[in-house]
Write a structure and sequence with these properties.
Elements lengths: L1 H9 L1 H12 L11 H17 L3 E6 L6 E6 L7 E7 L19 E3 L2 E3 L7 H18 L5 E7 L7 H9 L8 E4 L11 E6 L1 E10 L5 E2 H4 L6 H10 L22 H9 L4 H8 L12 H7 L2 E9 L9 E2 L2 E10 L5 H15 L5 E10 L2 E2 L5 H14 L4 E5 L4 H10 L3 E3 L15 E3 H19 L16
Helix pairs in contact: 1-4, 1-14, 2-4, 4-14, 5-13, 12-14
The chain binds ligand BES and zinc ion.
Length: about 475
């Protein structure tokens, strides 16, 4: 391992230059205009897998964005890692809030700024470099590896789910490894053992066939913008509790021991609030901030649109109003069941003065794993090698829907080994990745393959096969 670490330390500058190339491709999956860039990014990723020494590298077309696959399967008798990550990124608006262009990666004060720096290009690139170091230095990996990189994570992973079902037998492995989460705090590396799920919907209201003069018609018809506000206000009570009938029925309560573990974490609530710029923190009564974010479900309004929003004043009753809403879910809530409950409740609270329609956009199941899983423990030792201290175990409020799908379809545990930071600005202007964490992460990833390679393996060891051509 020492020679692998030497290789990594010698190549630090080259890694940053190559990462800049990867970050320069605007692979925004949510915006159809960027489809050619997404395709170009898939090409770049597959060339990179070839460059670092992986085999059977393929670009698999789907109905949406391509899936990139590569493997190295010569560690006979050792376990197999199925590594998952995403090469697509979020849109960059509001562009004028970026201090440097989102697709011209810029290093400032030891952090690399660009869209995708942390979520997830920088973190998958860290593994590419760890793989490269093993293969270039020793001619081999200490573990079998299959890599799947998708281009639709930020828009719901629709085609990946189908791909996994179709290729279930060829994707046999012992453990999933993912780096797509922040660590607990700067200097506090962590392993994430729980993620929230999600259901995302759009509500559309129509009052009249077109906008109306608010003087001529005000008083005669309902105003959809106002009705939308009345509907939304009925989703939660003043204590932050969600009022959708049956919403909490399947919520797994936080155990006292787990709450005690959260309590021990070095969480500075004052600093958290100040960094967010929030006048005061707010959430469901009876829970701490970490409990609310990691272990309790939420209802959020993601966006609202209606009527006149330009400069000046226009006297109008809008014909339509729209809200995008989402609910973060915790074990054992089922996103489809929650969508049904939401639809029923929406019908119950919506007045007859407007037409209401609901579009279900996407869902993801919540996920939790056992900390004493041997692969999770192996990851803990690897983190210690890369970061010089033992990780803490945390849950996260975000969602990576495919993690539950891996569990469901392939029956595999996941190790969530993330090196981002809580202030990484994912999905926001000035996204960044700390380069010290990136380099520590390359070493930790290289160590992770050693640690997992030394573990006992399950049945997958005996039937290692690649994706069919
Ligand atoms: N990397 C995030 C997931 C994440 C964020 C995990 C923060 C833990 C903490 C991922 O790329 C993401 O943003 N996922 C979406 C999923 C959704 C589009 C289905 C999310 O959480 O909003
Ligand atoms: Zn991500």
């Amino acid at each position: 391992m020492d020679d692998v670490i030497d290789f990594i330390n010698t190549n630090r500058d080259r890694y940053v230059e190559e990462l800049k190339e990867f970050l320069a491709i605007p692979s925004i999956s949510a915006l159809p205009d960027y489809a050619p860039d997404v395709a170009r990014c898939a090409e770049w990723t597959s060339s990179e897998l070839n460059r670092i020494g992986l085999e059977n590298v393929r670009l698999i077309e789907t109905e949406g964005n391509p899936i990139v696959y590569g493997d190295w399967l010569h560690a006979d008798g050792s376990p197999t890692i199925l590594f998952y990550g995403h090469y697509d990124v979020q849109p960059v608006d509001p562009l004028d809030e970026w201090e440097s262009p989102p697709f011209e990666a810029t290093v400032r004060a030891g952090e690399i700024y660009a869209r995708g720096a942390a979520d997830d290009k920088g973190q998958i690139f860290m593994h590419f470099k760890a793989i490269e170091a093993h293969i270039k230095q020793n001619g081999m990996l200490p573990v079998n590896m299959k890599l799947i990189l998708e281009g639709e994570e930020e828009v719901g992973s629709q085609n990946l789910n189908e791909f996994l079902r179709e290729h279930k037998s060829a994707l046999g492995a012992d453990v999933i490894v993912i780096s797509d989460t922040p660590m607990f705090d700067r200097g506090v590396p962590s392993i994430c053992y729980g993620l929230r799920g999600l259901t995302y919907c759009q509500i559309d209201l129509r009052g009249t066939k077109s906008d109306l003069h608010s003087g001529s018609f005000g008083g005669a018809v309902a105003n959809p913008a106002f009705v939308l506000a009345q509907i939304l206000v009925q989703m939660k009570d003043r204590s932050g509790r969600i009022k959708i009938d049956g919403f909490y029925d399947d919520v797994r309560q936080l155990r006292d021991e787990e709450r005690a573990e959260f309590e021990k974490l070095p969480f500075d609530e004052r600093r958290y609030r100040t960094e967010l710029g929030a006048p005061i923190l707010f959430g469901e009564t009876g829970y701490t901030t970490l409990e609310r974010v990691w272990g309790r479900p939420t209802f959020e309004v993601n966006g609202l649109q209606s009527g006149f929003t330009g400069n000046g004043a226009k006297t109008v009753i809008p014909a339509i109003a729209m809200a995008k809403v989402s609910m973060r879910l915790v074990p054992d809530q089922d996103p489809n069941k929650i969508s049904d409950l939401f639809e029923t409740y929406l019908k119950k609270v919506a007045p007859k003065t407007v037409d209401v329609s609901l579009t279900r956009m996407h869902t993801g199941r919540p996920w939790m794993t056992e900390i004493d899983n041997p692969f999770v423990q192996a990851a803990g030792r690897a983190i210690e090698k890369g970061f010089g201290r033992k990780p803490v175990f945390n849950r996260e409020g975000g969602s990576i829907p495919v993690v539950a799908t891996f569990q469901e379809i392939l029956g595999l545990p996941s190790v969530l080994f993330g090196v981002g930071l809580p202030d990484e600005n994912a999905h926001a202007p000035n996204e960044k990745l700390d380069l010290t964490n990136f380099h520590g992460g390359v070493i930790a990833s290289a160590a992770l393959y050693d640690e997992i390679g030394a573990e006992h393996c399950g049945t997958a060891c005996k039937t290692i096969k690649s994706l069919p051509h």
